């Protein structure tokens, strides 16, 4: 679990840096420039350390550079604010792969209720798309405080709630099926 949070922090580091610097300085050019430099530095650091970089890392770098350049040209932070939406859409697309979630489940769940795990995987994809649309809607306002609130409280809270509901539902279904199998 710790590695998942570390990966998420790494993936969203440029957005976090952009937000912090922009909130402190109210300077779009400075915040965007530092975010772009930070994203490039992340990739260089990983390469120097010999870490293998995946497609998502390069896609994230490309998004930061392209959206950052548009932000610099227009002096409009909304383009940088839209980056997390693109990430959510990409993750949602990946989650549309049938059975993607099975490898993350304990064997007892996979053996007992694989069809529910597959359905949960599709539900997660829908959640990512909904959050992505919300990010775009909030980013289009240009209100950084609302955007930060949406990403941390609303989007983060929705994911935590979805995880908790999934855990409880799968646990109840597995327990029910195992009891029924023991009686039979």
From TrEMBL:
The chain crosses the membrane at residues 12-41, 53-73, 79-96, 116-141, 147-170. GO terms for cellular component: plasma membrane. It comes from the Bacteria. Keywords: Cell membrane, Membrane, Transmembrane, Transmembrane helix. The keyword Lyase does not apply. InterPro entries: YciB. Pfam families: IspA (PF04279). The keyword Cell membrane applies. PANTHER family: INNER MEMBRANE-SPANNING PROTEIN YCIB, INTRACELLULAR SEPTATION PROTEIN A-RELATED. This is Intracellular septation protein. It comes from Bradyrhizobium zhanjiangense.
